[in-house]
Write a structure and sequence with these properties.
The protein has 18 helices and 9 strands. It is an alpha+beta fold.
Length: 455
């Protein structure tokens, strides 16, 4: 019957030759016969309406694959305790931080009410596990994975952990006496006291190794500290700051645990940041602050000891970059799956897929490098240039990923509503703190050539 219908000259004449050819090839399918017979009986207006309906009909879109930031499955075989901590961190961040992250970022305020529950996750037990003999060691892989989970939702929260649980905790672990470790580390692990790290100064950033102007001088059983520190995370609300100062007697750098309640200590919140606005950075003034000898870090006797701390924590900053890129990529991919233009999901267009492929490729390379350097650190084989490369590379790639994520979302990418704009801005802070991109590049360059090119 279909063949008979198709043989009618009036239909064939009405059809475009290309359409007639297609219909002819399908004419042996009997289920089309009744459809074509009905079409032949339609008048002009009805046939036009049918054509418009067919044109607008959409084929059901295939189900979108699950979003997975671990594209190369690099993190599938984590130790059971680390994986458990990772899942706790992810659940907390998705449940508690994600819904409020943009609001607190815009207001430049920190969600202090979340600290007690965050403390209950006991993440520092995974980052700094205690051996059977009571010694505490640093697990760089655990720190990296957990930092990534925090940063994929909020980079400020990840930095909050990094300052307290990396820089401050690490300073006492690496440079403190047994008595100082016993006094401070258990309370820090439980977040009963919150620490900060005071190295950078108003006029001293990248040149801090030889340029620290904050001074300390011995006065009986105490030390008197004078100077200023700037960009100090957690300092506006923390309980103590590890302050690095130059001894006027021998010109060496020494470290001190300075409680924020000490007379002469004052801090003001830094305003006007465009990146990591939720993180509370402070400008500290130390005016004849008296610190007892027992609060001087007993194993910190020069800048080389500061460098040991930075060498341990710099890999963690690389992981913050990984998390920042992962968060931007996740949100961009989800957006392109649900957003439609020209009747199709954005993700079905070649140029958008090119952006997504570039993003995930950069993200995977960042993860691979950061993971390897963390493994070297756990094995005691990580050198300064390894951690410098991780931070330099990951921070630079993060910048490119967040830019692609924003671009893939068009104008909506600059709205805070979709969160990618927050990651886009936060990447700028990651690019600069704990060793600028340029300084870390020169550290790697010195390792490659044997020539220092810093000045």
């Amino acid at each position: 019957m279909a063949t008979e219908l198709l043989s009618q000259s009036d239909l064939l004449t009405a059809l475009d030759p290309r359409v007639a050819s297609i219909v002819s090839r399908l004419s042996d399918r009997p289920e089309l016969a009744s459809v074509m017979e009905q079409l032949l009986n339609l008048d002009g207006p009805a046939l036009a309406r049918a054509k418009r309906s067919i044109t607008k009909a959409k084929v059901a879109a295939p189900a979108s694959p699950e979003i997975d930031v671990d594209f190369l499955r690099l993190l599938r075989d984590l130790p059971r305790d680390v994986e458990s901590a990772r899942l706790r961190a992810r659940e907390f961040m998705d449940r508690e931080v994600e819904p409020i992250a943009n609001d607190y970022w815009e207001r430049a305020e920190f969600p202090y009410h979340l600290i007690p529950e965050f403390a209950s996750l006991d993440l520092l037990a995974s980052i700094f596990p205690t051996a059977p003999d009571g010694t505490v060691h640093h697990d760089s892989v655990a720190e990296g994975v957990l930092t990534m989970e925090l940063a994929r939702v909020d980079c400020s929260f990840a930095t909050f952990l990094g300052v307290h649980g990396g820089l401050a905790f690490g300073s006492i672990l690496l440079c403190g006496s047994k008595e100082q470790q016993d006094e401070w580390l258990p309370r820090m692990r439980k977040w009963e006291v919150i620490g900060a790290f005071g190295l950078t100064e108003p006029d001293v950033g990248s040149g801090v190794a030889g340029g620290i102007t904050t001074t300390c001088r011995r006065d009986g059983d105490a030390w008197i500290i004078d100077g200023e520190k700037r960009w100090i995370g957690n300092s506006t609300f923390g309980d103590f700051v590890v302050v690095w100062a130059r001894d006027v007697a021998d010109q060496q750098i020494k470290g001190f645990i300075v409680e924020t309640s000490a007379p002469g200590y004052s801090v003001r919140k830094m305003e006007g940041k465009i990146a990591q606005r939720t993180l509370q950075n402070g400008h500290i003034t130390l005016d004849h602050v008296r610190v007892l000898e027992k609060n001087r870090l007993q194993k910190a006797n020069g800048f080389k000891d500061v460098a040991r701390v930075l060498g341990m924590t710099r890999v963690g900053v690389a992981w913050i970059a990984v998390g920042c890129a992962a968060g931007a990529y996740e949100r961009a991919l989800a957006y392109t799956q649900r957003r439609t233009q020209f009747g199709r999901p954005l993700g079905s267009f070649q140029l958008i897929q090119s952006m997504l492929a570039r993003m995930v490729g950069k993200l995977a390379s960042m993860q691979a490098l950061a993971l390897q350097v963390s493994r070297l650190q756990n094995a005691g084989q990580c050198e300064e240039h390894h951690s410098a490369l991780a931070k330099q590379f990951c921070a630079a790639q993060c910048r490119e990923v967040v830019a692609l994520a924003r671009e893939s979302m068009g104008g909506n990418g600059i709205l805070l509503d979709h969160s990618v704009a927050r990651f886009f801005a936060d990447a700028e802070a990651i690019y600069s703190y704990e060793g600028s991109n340029e300084i870390n590049t020169l550290i790697v360059g010195r390792a490659l050539t044997g020539h220092g090119a810093f000045v």
